[in-house]
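ok here's the first one, seq then struct tokens
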Amino acid sequence: MTEEPVPAILTGDSHEDSPADSHRAISPSEQTSAIRSVARQPILDRHSKVYGYELLFWNGQEPELGLTGQPTAENMLGNAVNFEVEQLSSGLPAFVRLAGASLSEQWVLGLPPDLTVVEVAEGEELSPTLLAACHNLKSLGFRVALDGFTGQPASKPLLELAAYVKVDLAKLGSDERRRHLRLLEGFSARPLAKNVETQRDYTEAREEGFELFQGYYFCRPEPVKNHKIPANHMVQLEILEVLQKDGVDLDRLAQLVVCDASLTYRLLRLVNSALFGMRQEVTSVQSALMQLGEDKFRRMAALAIASDFNTDQPPELLRMAFERGRFCDLSAGLLGLDPSEQYLIGMVSMFPAMLRIFMDDLVQLLPLRATARDALLGKGNKEGVLLDLLLCQDRGDWKEYDAILEANGLRFGQLMWRLSDAIGWANALVKSAA
């Protein structure tokens, strides 16, 4: 039986560059056509479970894939396949926006049909060629989404094909949206509300009859002023404090962890999961401490604490916390930052949503250096660069993303494989922590 390697997030190992980074120089033409970054926008159902992701690929020039600049789109889609669409979408439906002129091209078939939802904007000229391309893709197993639906009569042929209809909450008021939803009666397409950014947006869209919701509203539960953190979570914050001190007090740490039955269960379940390949079963906190050592235990305990914080919240919050922690950990060496601290900054950035507390209040309770706290507060310091990049990706703010890269001497090639690794790692961890 082949022994599984211990993941780098536990060992603190990181790689300065992937083989692809150092293999050869990237020509200017390749830089404009290849993917420079990828953003994933989650799509949730009415039960706050992730249904799929919209994938936004950026080539450094065009705002999004497929809207314009079609000569570069083929190369970008080829890179998307290499970047593993299945991993990016966590094996769920992947919504990819393409311009109508691209739909009949053979290279589109390189995307996995069973996962891919091809989005066609309502504003596209509905030519016989476009309609035939959509019919062909559907016959091959792809699904079609009509994006930006405003009820135009000319869109009816696409409605008859579409599995989803996307309505932009930012452009239409509630009364208009209700009218448009009535136009969908008799069609099989599922209504999807996009740009759902607040809890109020979500509540309104759900009441109107939408079935799917795209946006980061779930990351912004309404914080409760003067919200009291439950006692068990305060103990967990104390555990984080003990872990961050040089020379961990193992006796005190064991006492704190054992007092929290839920945390103990999650910690031991993670330690014994196949993901970490322990040679023998770990049955106690003390043995976990002895076998893992301080640094590995710090990271494992942070994972378990994040899992416990997210018990009553959408699982996507936990997945994002793991992904951010992993990405910041792997990328820390590029900026000469402490990987362990960056790992914690990435995960802690999701704690306010989990605990329904303001970040300003939370940082006062965290055992972090002042510069790390400033990073979480978005004060634009070096410790916050990696987190800021992730936030730009979430927003699709490519201009600011590129400015951060340039200001810090970073290359997109250095970050791409780290992002892919972080996504795969987070997906696996969520399954282990469930």
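and now the second one, same deal
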Amino acid sequence: MATLSPCPCGSKHLYKSVEVSAGGGHAPNYLPGLGSWLSSEKFFLVLCKDCGLTRFYARSHAMEKLGESKKWIRL
């Protein structure tokens, strides 16, 4: 996971969520092609207590699949 602290606002009051589903089914799939056939991938949220900035971080398992996924285009 990338360096989380400090927040761009300068705060070090950051909170990390438990794993959150990236969607699928009736919800949008925010990490398409990176989960398994039966379940969507998961990610972590990091929230700054002072400014409210929320950042999404994919798990390393999902990032390893990026090169072989046809749903993602390298920029």
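notes on #2: Helices lie at 60-64. The chain has a mean pLDDT of 87.
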